[in-house]
Amino acid sequence: MEAKYRQWCSTYMRSSPSGLYCFYNGSGDNGDAVTCSEAHGYAMLIAVLHGNQVDFDGLLTFFLNFRNEHGLMMWQVRMNQSGALYVEEDARDCATDGDIDIATALFQAQRVWPNGSSNFPAGAYGYEAAALSDALLAHCVHPELHVPLLGDWCCTDSKENRRLHDSTRSSDFILSSFLLFHMKHPNPESRQRWQQVLEATLQVAISQLDVNPRTGLIADFLVHDKRHGWHPSKGKHLESKYDGEMSWNACRTPWRLAHYYAVSGDQRILPLLQTMLKTLLNANFPAVPAGIRIRDGKGLADYSSRAFIAPVGYLAYALGDGASHMTAIRALDDEEDEYFGDSIDLVIAEEAMAAPMWLA
Predict the structure, then answer these.
(1) For 186-206, how does the pLDDT look when each residue is reduced to its tens digit (9 = 90+)?
(2) Nearest to residue 185, comparing CAs of 262, 229, 143, 131?
(3) pTM to 2 decimals?
(4) What is the CA radius of gyration of the chain?
(5) How far is residue 257 from each of residues 249, 271, 273, measured CA to CA in Å?
């Protein structure tokens, strides 16, 4: 575990005059982009759960330097040829999951380091956690359906925007964080609202077992309408033609939902998790395809990734299937290094160890 952590830090952590960040563009596919809020959330979770306060403070400083007018992290940061960091106008919006993870890390930091540090006084972590989780409530939660919005950019000023507004991304179903916010936020009204978000999102997840009773799989994007409730999107909804399948967003859902079960013991989600695991263990396991058809569990890709294997391994672990968990652990070594899968793998490992103290 320590070797994995040190390797991840040496590969992905970078320093700048604005603070520390997680470099996510090793492939060069994103031009001169160097990080995104998703990566920053992973890095802050890793730092606090591993007990590295120096790195955590550096990451927190970076977050504070790249908040938008809503108090949420701008979703992408770039570096120009002279080495200066900047943000394009269309990247000033947030992406919900990154801010959820950052707020989670801040609440955990208040637990782990209640006396603060030389950079942040006692109570500062908790203050920032409450402020960020309130910004999420104000700008990233559907006002009527009470589930996560895709980001603070969602609006209803056109038919197309209404379609996106009335949808949700399953990788944002971070129920263990919603439960944490409900229990740890200092404001009773905010605690009540986070309980509402938790219950609404939990019910959306559970409802997908009725949509796909054979597999229990959840699509990348779900769309709501008054007649049919929540159902998988059709074709390209926001990112790709696989938005209505288990692709590069929903690959995280087994981990996110399993972690909620691990910290809460909520039996309501167990049938969904059991069905999901049975399907995924039949999907060429442990080489879980990097894309799975939700109606029948058939692979949509002929390759795998740590981003798909590690969440299935953790789901097996949370449900007490130690043999499948160890099979997944061994399979992780066969995959190529890359930011997304490596980061998910390490966050899962840190969260698994932290689960008993998650709500302390």
Answers:
(1) 999 999 999 999 999 999 999
(2) 131
(3) 0.98
(4) 19
(5) 13, 12, 8
